Amino acid sequence: MMKHSDSCFCELAPLYALDILEEQARRVVEQCMAELPELEIELEEFHLGVAAIPYSLPDVAIAPCVKDRLFQRIANVDILDETSLHTTAIAPPPIAPPVPPFTVRAGDVRWRNHPVPGVTMARLNVDKAKREIVCLLRAEPGVTYPPHRHAAVEEIFMLEGDLEVDGEVYGRGDYIRSSPGSIHSPYTSTGCMFFIRTSIDDEMLN
């Protein structure tokens, strides 16, 4: 088994999150995580920090002349000769190539320990622009998830087991949608697994 020092991972992880490492250095980070899965949680903290960078930038004031220039350009279009409007060929905008769907194969799903004891999760996608995370979550029998406040809409689709939310018990095939600002502390008696889409800015209250 390859050995990597903690300092090696700590130096490369921020650059990995910024997506500016060369392939060889990226493999070093990924090898570290393969040997020590708990390093993925540390890397996720760097990802969240990178996602927050745009929100820390100062506001840029719009130049006062922008509005005047915009209306002047509109006026110039209005006074174009009608003949030229009909005779001038306007090239259609280029058609962008189709974007292939983002997929995660069953064999590529990686489960890891959640900070809450008895809970594991498999991250499927993180949308940094929307501040949103999509994942699978499993909880062992008798687990109570700590109280938390939702920063945005949370959506849950039950796959296995039971989940009690706000006094209601949900099972396989049930869909649960919680509104922004809502607070709850779900509980499972027999254990469960579900698909969840929620905000990475949800607030833990204990």
In summary, what is this structure?
The protein is of the alpha+beta class and 206 residues long. The chain has helices at 6-17, 23-35, 39-52, 65-78, 82-87, and strands spanning 112-113, 119-127, 132-139, 148-149, 154-161, 163-165, 168-170, 175-178, 183-184, 192-199, 203-204.
Structural commentary:
By secondary structure, the protein is an alpha+beta fold. The chain has five helices and eleven strands, in the order αααααβββββββββββ. A six-stranded antiparallel β-sheet has the order 1-2-3-10-5-8, with no helix packed on it. β1 and β2 form a beta hairpin. The N terminus is likely disordered.
Largest sheet: 6 strands, antiparallel
Which geometry do the CA atoms define? extended
Q: Which percent range describes the beta-strand content?
A: 15-25%
Walk across the major sheet and give the strand order: 1-2-3-10-5-8
Low-confidence stretches: 1-6
- Overall radius of gyration: 25 Å
Mean pLDDT: 82
How many helical stretches?
Answer: 5
Total beta-strand segments = 11
Distance between the termini: 39 Å
Helix and strand element order: HHHHHEEEEEEEEEEE
Residue share in helices? 25-40%
Derived structural class: alpha+beta
